Amino acid sequence: MTAPNRNTLWARTIVDELARSGVTAACVSPGSRSTPLTVAFAEHEDVRVFSHLDERAAAYFALGRARRTGEVTPLVCTSGTAAANYHPAVLEADQSRVPLLALTADRPPELRDSGANQTADQEKLYGDAVRWYKDLPEPEAEARKLRSLRTSVARALTAAEGTDPGPVHLNVPFRKPLEPTEVPGDVPEGLEPLAAAGRPTDAPGAGGAATPGAVGAAGAAGPSAPPFVERTQGTPELPDGEIRSLADDLGVERGLIVAGPADPHEIDPEAVVALAHATGFPILADPLSGLRFGGHTRVAPVIGGYDAYLDEAVTADWPDPEAVLRIGASPTSKPLRKYLARTDAQQLVVDPAGKWREAEFTASDLVVADPSRLAEALARVVAGPDSAAWRDRWAEAERTHWDAVDAAEGLFEGGSSPTPSTPRRSRRRCSSRTRCPFGISIASHGRVRTR
């Protein structure tokens, strides 16, 4: 027998397929209706389980882990209001393009809209914030339904980790018994091995010996067992003719590369630096771009203090940039956004998902391409006049800003800085000792925040 009852088989199949597809960890919160999924994750030897009493905390933990690794960390919760606590993190994952998978246990259909305890309308609970939603069928030990279940898991991961990564919601109804107790006749002995146990390790694309048979109690099919559906993710690239056309647009004296907040693992610093060298454009790096600090700043004109000096009174006599290449999300700096809106530059917004991420509505071009690959391709063919005077203007403004910061007293709590260079040394010390590719946010406490 493959499992003591159909709920256990169903949950093991979900977890088995997730593990075969590369999932290595899950976040589980306590609850009764989610028992089959909780037990299946706990028993699987290739998946690490993080237990969180609070669903909101679990969701943000999974969000942070996915942002760091680029991989889905599934969430498991019981029915009712528990799933609603995922909503803030789902919205964050949607806006930040972080892969997330919510597995919300639910009551069977006849108990919905009945006033039963721990019951809420979980149909499309997160609206259009998710990349894909599916209300899974009720568990059944039938070959076609199990193959469909494995395919649904593959589709969920594809949607979560695709070109436009983000949250996915699978609603999983269970009826009692929820525990892995024996139910005679619930799972037939002759169940098709492919449906019950997934593809064997000798399937095309997999290594190792054949492992037919059912998913065992531990739910592990072996580290080399292939997924039921092999997923191949691509990245949008432009043809050579379009690359050369964009290179012509960037072949100007005065240009900028604006790197906004980066989607996880999206922007390659080396590719952007190569383009900066080829064009002679300064890089205006958002704190969340991953470009503001690092070894590349020693060889590229990376600008980070612009928030303090891009006021209209300062830039009124500056010549406008002729072209601006924008990668990543909209910059967090309001002065930068307003500066770009005031210029008469050709602004090219690059987004791999083809979405509009420019709220001033002054950009002239939307380029659907992977930003790092595009930067590499452009760096090979762009040829511009490379105005040293334009680049020096930005370098001088940046230097003046940081000199003023270093000369300021009382910048930190506790009084005057010990030496004029303390702020700059503190920044460098933090950046050199921090291995995380994302920024450290330092903010005051108890202050009124205004926009």
UniProtKB/TrEMBL annotation:
The keyword Protein biosynthesis does not apply. Residues 11-124 form the Thiamine pyrophosphate enzyme N-terminal TPP-binding domain. GO terms for molecular function: 2-succinyl-5-enolpyruvyl-6-hydroxy-3-cyclohexene-1-carboxylic-acid synthase activity; metal ion binding; thiamine pyrophosphate binding. The keyword Transferase applies. Residues 195-204, 211-223 have a biased composition (Low complexity). It comes from the Archaea. Pfam families: TPP_enzyme_M_2, TPP_enzyme_N. This is 2-succinyl-5-enolpyruvyl-6-hydroxy-3-cyclohexene-1-carboxylate synthase. Signal peptide: none annotated. Residues 158-242, 408-432 are annotated as: Disordered. InterPro entries: DHS-like_NAD/FAD-binding_dom, MenaQ_synth_MenD, MenD_middle, THDP-binding, Thiamin_PyroP_enz_TPP-bd_dom. GO terms for biological process: menaquinone biosynthetic process; organic acid metabolic process; sulfur compound biosynthetic process. It comes from Halolamina pelagica. Keywords: Magnesium, Manganese, Metal-binding, Thiamine pyrophosphate, Transferase. Residues 250-369 form the Menaquinone biosynthesis protein MenD middle domain. The lineage of its organism: Archaea, Methanobacteriati, Methanobacteriota, Stenosarchaea group, Halobacteria. Coiled coil: none annotated.
